[in-house]
Design brief:
Number of helices: 12
Number of strands: 11
Distance between the termini: 76 Å
CATH architecture of the largest domain: 3-Layer(aba) Sandwich
Order of helices and strands: HEHEHEHHEEHEHEHEHEEHHEH
CATH topology of the largest domain: D-Maltodextrin-Binding Protein, domain 2
Strand order of the largest sheet: 2-1-3-10-4-11
Length: 331
């Protein structure tokens, strides 16, 4: 009898396990099949009106059409993107709260101590949206007509040239640090509390130049108020076809790009991630996307969640070395 009940118990346990597994699988498939059932929040960890905000709102519109649900952009700025990112990390992993990550995500681990999360552990990549260059700009009447002019002057006058950025650790700052390192020149970094202040002082002649984001520089270069000497990406930007890259201008091995991509809280199912990935890629293929972001010089970079995750990991490792070698610290 003992053996009989033992075998029977084991039999029913196996049946119960299979039944629960079936129910769980059915529930998972049901969730992914009906997702999304309500609006999705797309968090921008910057203030409204900047380049990231524009990219987010453009992508969100295309995603909304593909997903048949509103994708609502919410701005949660502060602490170098930490506030907005932490909000998403602590959100349920159900596909309804996402974040537009930027270059900052790759450099913050090397710049900020005691962050409340580890992005590589607590977020899961969904899709890369694209990348855009920073642009080295000077006044139109500047004596610097090329990158060679800048390097020649800097070598003869160490420490006399200044460059503005929107703050320590930002893309404009790190683009400058990379330039001084590879060109082997000395320049003084002047940090501001925003891109508009940095550009204002370049326009006023208080600062020699800026490795500005494409979004900050585009209209001013187009209006003839600034001159673009080079873009920081490996290839020429579609938005800046007449402007040479730093490599073309003679700075060997130089490349730096501002990038945008979407992440979800870790634990989000693969089915939901894949569905979101498809929606992002469809959005980047629209004429609305390419037309609206032309001034950003943004080049769409469609791909899988895995390829995007590897890209960010490589960026984090590369910039960690640059930041450590330059001994860069936040204010």
């Amino acid at each position: 009898m003992i053996s009989f009940y033992s075998n029977t118990s084991s039999k029913y346990s196996n049946l119960l396990f299979q039944f629960l597994l079936f129910i769980g699988l059915g529930f998972s498939l049901s969730v992914s099949a009906t997702y999304p059932e309500k609006p999705i929040k797309l968090i921008v960890p910057f203030s409204p009106g900047g380049g990231t905000d524009l990219v987010a709102r453009t992508v969100a519109e295309g995603m909304s059409r593909d997903l048949n649900q509103p994708v609502v952009v919410e701005n949660k700025p502060g602490a170098g993107t930490v506030i907005g990112t932490d909000y998403v990390v602590k959100s349920p992993p159900d596909g309804y709260t996402l974040i537009v990550a930027t270059f900052a995500q790759a450099v913050n681990p090397s710049l900020i101590k005691n962050m409340p999360y580890v992005a590589s552990r607590d977020l899961i990549p969904v899709a890369m949206v694209g990348n855009s260059p920073n642009v080295l700009v000077v006044l139109p009447n500047s004596e610097f007509k090329s990158i060679a002019d800048v390097i020649a002057y800097a070598k003869k006058n160490p420490g006399k040239l200044t460059y503005a950025s929107q703050g320590n650790g930002t893309s404009a700052h790190l683009a400058g640090e990379l330039f001084t390192s590879l060109a082997q020149v000395e320049m003084v970094h002047i940090p501001y509390k925003g891109a508009s202040q940095a550009i204002t002082d370049v326009l006023g002649g208080q600062v020699s130049m800026s490795f500005a984001t494409a979004s900050a520089a585009a209209n001013l270069v187009g209006a003839g108020k600034l001159r673009a000497l080079a873009v920081t990406t490996k290839e020429r930007s579609t938005g800046w076809p007449k402007t040479p890259t730093m490599i073309e201008a003679g700075v060997k091995d130089y490349y730096m790009e501002s990038w945008y991509g979407i992440f979800a809280p870790v634990g989000t199912t693969k089915e939901i991630v894949d569905r979101l990935n498809k929606a992002v890629l469809q959005s980047t293929k629209t004429s609305y996307f390419s037309t609206r972001l032309a001034d950003e010089g943004l080049m769409a970079k469609p791909g899988s969640p895995e390829s995007f995750g590897q890209y960010v990991a490589n960026e984090e490792a590369r910039w960690q070395k640059i930041i450590q070698n330059a001994k860069i610290k936040l204010d």
